[in-house]
Amino acid sequence: MLNFPVPYPGELIYSTVARAGIREGIISPKELLDDVYGNRNVIATLDLPNQLSRITRWLPSGYSVEVIAYCHTLFPLYAPFIPEERRKRCLAWMAGESRGAVHLAMGVPASIVKVPGHVRYCPGCLKEQQRIFGEYFWKREWQIAGVDCCEKHGELIHTAITRPLVDQHRYHDASPDTCPLFPQKPPRNESEMVLTQVRQLLEQRPATSPTYEQWSSHYYRLAQQSGFIRGRTHIDHAAIAESVSARWATSFLRRYGLGIDQNSNYCWLRAIFRKHRKSFSYLQHIIVHHALMPECWSITDVIESVRELPLHLPPEPSEPTGEAKHGLTSDQHDWIKMLVDQPPKKARVAAPALYARLYRYDRLWLKQVNQAQPRTQVLKRKPRVDWRQRDRHYLTKLREILRFLRADPRGPRHSQTYLLKQLGKLSTLEKKLDRLPRTRRLLARYTESVPEYQVRRLRNAWWELKNEFQHPPRWRLIRIAGLSETRLTDQARDYLHGLEENQEDTNDQRNQGQQPG
To answer: pTM higher than 0.90, yes or no?
Structure first.
């Protein structure tokens, strides 16, 4: 695309693609996908899109995948709070095809903080965009949970476009029809506080993510600095809950699924001060820090300080020392006695505490002893299914189905899924197709591709119109076939050209025959 727009500051790349469609005058969603990505199956994703490497082809050289991800998606909201290896993997997925893996890896579907139900906008900001840039676009900060307002103009307005998007392949542009300029309510105090920190997250540049261990250490230190430690090491969760509840309105917390139940051991506020085994949402981090830190705190400063905390590497298994060098300990004697009567796995179930002590202090010895035990012979079961017989059965049945389908030239596309459905038990056959080699070969031979299906539809349309027209016009052929010029594949287009050329040759021969000798 020669006229692909450059993203505006703070604009979602989703919005940029939508503007590209408007500039080119493209109405069909699939045609826009074809022009931008060269792939009609791309899902139009608002927050964490993929196929960014294809978009970089149409932008100036400074726009790498990483730059687009950090400056024109919501990736920076999640990146600091996931492990570094996962952050890099998510960037790689966003560059190519992810099939929803980015959202899953970042914990978006499982998070108790849900994304807004509709695409939102600020009428006041849209007026400024129209004055400065001459057009509307979607800003990143409008689509973030916890940010319900613009501090200059007031509360955000909901569009009729729902999230997740119902039209998976359509890029909705910000236009006067989509975004009427309604009056806005005054901004809420809590939303303004969140917006201040969210903007800092959105402006951060690529950096290494802290580990779960570093986040665990940070929250323990935060409790210490705030005076919420009981005795020597115990965190006073009740006092922390009171402090957070005093700083944030209960209605605000409940709106985002972050209500605080002090009687529950599984409350998110308790979990964030325990050992981190999963990622927490940016909103959870902001709420806790705003309640426990001074007024002028900064989320980016917090992330930087967490990144600088010492890494506690897991201890490497050491060689047996002391008593273990000269003789066996009592635990080792007990373990050997147990292995006389039972295999290691059963012994481990029978004496979990003994196994845990040995695993912690004598891991190498335990591994060597367990591996030295004779393995129990596993009897091979007789297979429940005779796959050769089943292959013959499905082969015969598939041949009958194919004969029946060939007798009627109409009907849906003979895709592999369609043919397997005719056989019955679609899911089972798809999973076990590698055990049915003859059936698989027949399927591969007679499965109809999309271009072949289009050619069949055009052929049927030609025979249908042949009774009414000596030379059926092109537009009628396409309409009767249920196709369109934009959806025609190259093979179908060549077939259609062939029909037209044959008609022209027939006309030429007829005209030559009518000339006087």
So the answer is: no
